[in-house]
Amino acid sequence: MTSKTAYNVAVVGATGAVGQKIMEILEKKDLPINELKLLSSKRSAGSKLTFKNKEIIVEEAVPESFSGIDIALFSAGGSVSKKLAPEAVKHGAVVVDNTSAFRMDENVPLVVPEVNESDIKSHNGIIANPNCSTIQMVAALKPIQDAYGLSRVIVSTYQAVSGAGNQASEELEKQTEQYLNGEEMTAEILPVKGDKKHTPIAFNALPQIDVFQDNGYTFEEMKMINETKKIMHLPELPVAATCVRLPFFTSHAESVYVDVEKDGLTVKDIWKVLEEADGVILEDDPATQTYPTPLSASDKEEVFVGRVRKDPDLDKGFHLWVVSDNLVKGAAWNTIQIAERLIKNNWF
Amino acid sequence: MTSKTAYNVAVVGATGAVGQKIMEILEKKDLPINELKLLSSKRSAGSKLTFKNKEIIVEEAVPESFSGIDIALFSAGGSVSKKLAPEAVKHGAVVVDNTSAFRMDENVPLVVPEVNESDIKSHNGIIANPNCSTIQMVAALKPIQDAYGLSRVIVSTYQAVSGAGNQASEELEKQTEQYLNGEEMTAEILPVKGDKKHTPIAFNALPQIDVFQDNGYTFEEMKMINETKKIMHLPELPVAATCVRLPFFTSHAESVYVDVEKDGLTVKDIWKVLEEADGVILEDDPATQTYPTPLSASDKEEVFVGRVRKDPDLDKGFHLWVVSDNLVKGAAWNTIQIAERLIKNNWF
């Protein structure tokens, strides 16, 4: 379409954890918005939310909601996206979808702007926002791949409860109080809302994020494996993942081990490319105990990397500790960045 | 020495987290104890502790304390062991040392009974108990190595605060209350007592356990790397480790990735050797969301393994999730097991 000066934007899932964060970031950014439409399930419709000092009534998302919308940001779960994203496209909107519904669809680009911005161009109405834990990892891997090549990636994650939604955060808070009061902890949400069994997360670690697949991996682990290959255009790169939920509210951390292709590299060589990388901040100084943590990375847009170490046994092995806010860069901010680049390049 | 019917046993560091756990386990076990002597620093001397319904006054540990002692269990920190373990040996005791003081000494066997019991035999008065995070990992790796061979180990840990002592557990509790009350969290102990900087652990993850070494690794990481090679008698095995402290009180979890030597193995092949392994319990059923967690493993003696998965990309790669109580199998119980085997085999 012809470049506009301002765009009609819809947020689908406006009352959820990611929807709220999208509005919070849109407040601070200069995305040229003409009208902001807030959409939700029937249950949450009617809520009033404030955007730039203006009250907006949340409406139920139906196919007709997208009439006149230029960009629709979806964060209301996979089933909502599957049903309504194609309707939004039919009504002329470009969808940035933050669910897993279309990520592995070969007709849908899966984008982290610092890594594969130009993939946006090839969209057919839908652009997928990757899984939170994938986004921060590929942001850190991309500069290493470009400079030195990667031949293997093995990641173990340390993931915040907010990735499972607001109810999971409330559950952590409730269980923590129960534990400190000597009461039995009650679990109804985690590890996965609606799954067969629930286990306390407070003062615990749950090696299950999302439901199990037939191959014994969780869906979260398979997302990290498959999405990383797609975003980086490295279908043959071996990626191994273990995903673990932990008792903190915000930001995911990842212990990432890579084999590089080039030999003889030092920690300084890895530091150099990370320091120069777009969207990445290096926080790595053992002498002053400097490294990122979930608390230090919270509410920030960047991906933080520390604890870079060379394997003492193997010349091509390196460790990284990668931390980022799962609701910001891992969801809302990456979604908005995609919309920004779409507008900037007029790739409608 | 000639086999005795009962032994004089000293616990050095009786008032600490591990010392307390040693007494708790000794209460339940049938180690043939004649006299139990409880020793501590000058500061804690005079405390009264109860063992098998008898009150025992804790005495200050000095060289003469070990006169008449057959077995001395040390858990009072590396500097105490360095000073007093040789004195205990001079007085005729066999020392089982739970600190890092002698672990890498080539004249000191480093023992996990399920893995290398017969190494006890070669002691010269001191037997070292490995680091908690190492013990549980080698217990799970040993049956795989024996059956299929290992060519590479990459581990990321999820470690409980109690590994840093009682004060660290108190700090987690205090910070948790501060956070829930909306107060600023105060940090004085973790990540490492006496280190330059302290960072809150509550609702956070700290990628530092023990002090940093010149190579950028923490001492905990180097312990896992070096101790694993020594215990398994595999000096050439590449072992890579990242150690992370997390906000739970008890039990360490580990995401362990291994390359095996044999090709064509399945998850069932790995399950089989773990099921038959001494001291290991397999808890692995994705269909019923069955896997060990720090809470489920607490106060138990075994090493629990779940989430066994074959790498979808690489035939020889497998994931394991290994959980065990860091104060029980990771410290007190392994120490007592060594003493039991010493007695059973009369390897004094």
UniProtKB/TrEMBL annotation, chains A, B:
Record flagged with keyword Oxidoreductase: yes
Binding site for substrate: 159, 245
Catalytic residues in the record: 132, 252
GO molecular function: aspartate-semialdehyde dehydrogenase activity
Pathway terms, separated by semicolons: Amino-acid biosynthesis; L-threonine biosynthesis; L-threonine from L-aspartate: step 2/5; Amino-acid biosynthesis; L-lysine biosynthesis via DAP pathway; (S)-tetrahydrodipicolinate from L-aspartate: step 2/4; Amino-acid biosynthesis; L-methionine biosynthesis via de novo pathway; L-homoserine from L-aspartate: step 2/3
Binding site for phosphate: 103
Source taxon at top rank: Bacteria
UniProt-listed SMART domains: Semialdhyde_dh (SM00859)
EC number, as in UniProt: 1.2.1.11
Residues reported in the UniProt entry to bind NADP(+): 15-18, 43-44, 162-163, 326
Keywords: Amino-acid biosynthesis, Diaminopimelate biosynthesis, Lysine biosynthesis, Methionine biosynthesis, NADP, Oxidoreductase, Threonine biosynthesis
Substrates-to-products reaction catalysed: L-aspartate 4-semialdehyde + phosphate + NADP(+) = 4-phospho-L-aspartate + NADPH + H(+)
Entry-linked Pfam families: Semialdhyde_dh (PF01118), Semialdhyde_dhC (PF02774)
Family (UniProt): Belongs to the aspartate-semialdehyde dehydrogenase family.
Name of the protein in its database record: Aspartate-semialdehyde dehydrogenase
Native source organism of the sequence: Virgibacillus kekensis
Gene: asd
